[in-house]
Amino acid sequence: MNKLYVGSEVGQLRRVIIHRPERALTHLTPSNCHELLFDDVLAVKRAGEEHDIFANTLREQGVEVLLLHDLLSETLSVPEAREWLLTSQISDFRLGGVLANDVRCFLADLPNQELASILLGGLSYGELPVQSSSMMQGVHERTDFVIEPLPNHLFTRDTSCWIYGGVSINPMAKPARQRETNHLRAIYRWHPSFAGQGFIKYFGDEERNYENSTIEGGDVLVIGRGAVLIGMSERTTPQGVEQLASSLFKRDEVNQIIAMQLPKHRSCMHLDTVMTHMREDTFSVYPEVVRKDVQCWRLTGDESGQVDVKEAGYFVTAIEEALDVGPLNLITTGGDSFESEREQWNDANNVLTVKPGVVIGYERNVYTNEKYDKAGITVLPIPGNELGRGRGGARCMSCPIERDGI
Ligand SMILES: NC(=O)NCCC[C@H](N)C(=O)O
Predict the structure, then answer these.
(1) What is the spatial distance between Cα 359 and Cα 374, in angstroms, rounded to a whole number?
(2) Which of 28, 40, 158, 215 to mutate to test the pocket of ligand 1 (most atoms within 8 A of CB)?
(3) What does UniProt list as catalytic (predicted)?
(4) Same domain, 102 and 157
(5) Which residues in 193-220 are b (16+ Cβ under 10 Å) and which e?
(6) For a 10 Å CB count at each end of the chain, is N or C smaller?
(7) Does 244 share its domain with 331?
(8) Measured from the CA of 176, which atom of ligand 1 is nearest?
């Protein structure tokens, strides 16, 4: 077993968790998709095929691919994990004691793969083969959910993120994603690839109300040399950043955090939708958002967990200093202003670097990909006409658990 460690954004990628979307997508409808943070319904079979191409592109680059569905099923074979997941995901507070108990009894008899599929993909009242005495069944339609689907598990980047020798298991900002976190808590606690592997859990492993301290991994860039770049976006709050920072400094895993303020818009819901790292001295940026005047702070601290915050001026200079490189090469979204706005929306800036200067990106972003090519960045193109409707690209769809430093 190799070490669980993510030393950068751009070093050789070695192992990654991704999620092939299946059952959850079959539950997406025009009436519920916006609440579930998708802009449209997807062609389910085609989305799976697109995802298979993504997975194979990673494998061809020598990356070991772990599938979230398999990890969850394997975790469910540990009796304590099964018990914990059934109690926490099908809680009495969520469904009322009577229905929760009936649903848990039904689920407890299912094989691991099938149970994982329902936990990830949801269960409607019409699909529940149990007649409960609970009032809940009486007051709900067949298409209402007993267990809400979690289609955004597709974006494994966000729910947990590895930073050097440990992981943050993230309290998510939006209700549609909050149940995802327990799946990752269970996997990291009980799955044999993780249990007892001696990695650090920086933040989010406790079952408690984290209130406003939310973090999502799309905002966290492990830029290397002990530095971390974090976006404070629609999802990640300054309170969340300070909590994570304190734990990172306490464990002595990080020497500085650069925190950037972002507008609270869906088009830039996470930092990685407007900025990704492609080579040690090269970033992709969407210039409409990643502007010179964004507010930026440098956080430092020590093993007491105390965090010191100072204004850091221009974020590019802060990154150059942290990495001891310069000047940084910023490749902006391609095309005229119409084209670049359209391509950013379709995740042209959200590429996954597999090794320095080699990235996976959606093939549809022709203007931006051309600019990458001209700058000497190799784009391994994947189709994303279906997957992209969830508003995430290759970086969003991957959770690296093992990657070299720079
Ligand atoms: N890192 C990312 O930007 N992830 C994409 C998340 C898309 C998802 N539909 C969401 O709204 O959370």
Answers:
(1) 14
(2) 158
(3) 396 (amidino-cysteine intermediate)
(4) no
(5) bbeeeebbbbbbbeeeebeebbbbbbbb
(6) N
(7) yes
(8) 12
**To which residue do tokens 């990495």 refer?**
323
For residues 307 and 301, is the Cβ–Cβ distance under 8 A? yes
Kindly report, residue by residue over 250-308, the tens digit of the pLDDT. Answer: 999 999 999 999 988 887 899 999 999 999 999 999 999 999 999 999 999 999 999 99
Among protein residues, the one whose CA lies closest to atom 5 of ligand 1? 392
Question: What CATH number does the domain containing 130 carry?
Answer: 1.10.3930.10
**Are 259 and 356 in a shared domain?**
yes
The tally of domains found in the chain comes to 2
Ligand 1: centre distance to CA 273 (Å): 8
pTM, entire model: 0.97
Q: What is the pLDDT of residues 119-157, one digit of tens each?
A: 999 999 999 999 999 999 999 999 999 999 999 999 999
Residue 317 included in any domain: yes
User: Distance between CA 106 and CA 15 in Å, rounded?
Assistant: 35
117 and 161 both lie in a single domain: no
- Predicted pLDDT at 266: 83
Q: Ligand 1: does its nearest atom lie under 6 Å from the Cβ of 391?
A: yes
Kindly give the distance from the C-alpha atom of residue 343 to the centroid of ligand 1, in angstroms, as a whole number: 16
246 Cβ contact partners less than 8 Å away, ≥ 6 residues apart: 301, 305, 306, 307
In this structure, the chain runs to a length of 406
Calculate how far, in angstroms, residue 349's C-alpha sits from the geometric centre of ligand 1.
13
Q: Same domain, yes or no, for 119 and 42?
A: no
Predicted pLDDT at 1:
52
Residue ranges of the chain with per-residue pLDDT less than 70: 1
- Find tokens 């079959």 and name the residue: 26
Q: Is the CB of 392 under 6 A from ligand 1?
A: yes
Residue 107 lies in a domain: yes
Kindly state the tokens that stand for 103: 């649903």
Query: In this structure, how many other beta carbons lie within 10 angstroms of the beta carbon of residue 17?
Result: 22
Helix (H) or strand (E) holding 112: helix 112-121
Residues 294 and 217 in one domain: yes
CATH number at residue 366: 3.75.10.10
> How many A from CA of 390 to the centre of ligand 1?
7
State the catalytic residue, choosing from 161, 268, 296, 396. Answer: 396
Active site residue 396: yes
> Complex ipTM, two decimals?
0.99
Q: Are residues 141 and 58 in the same domain?
A: no
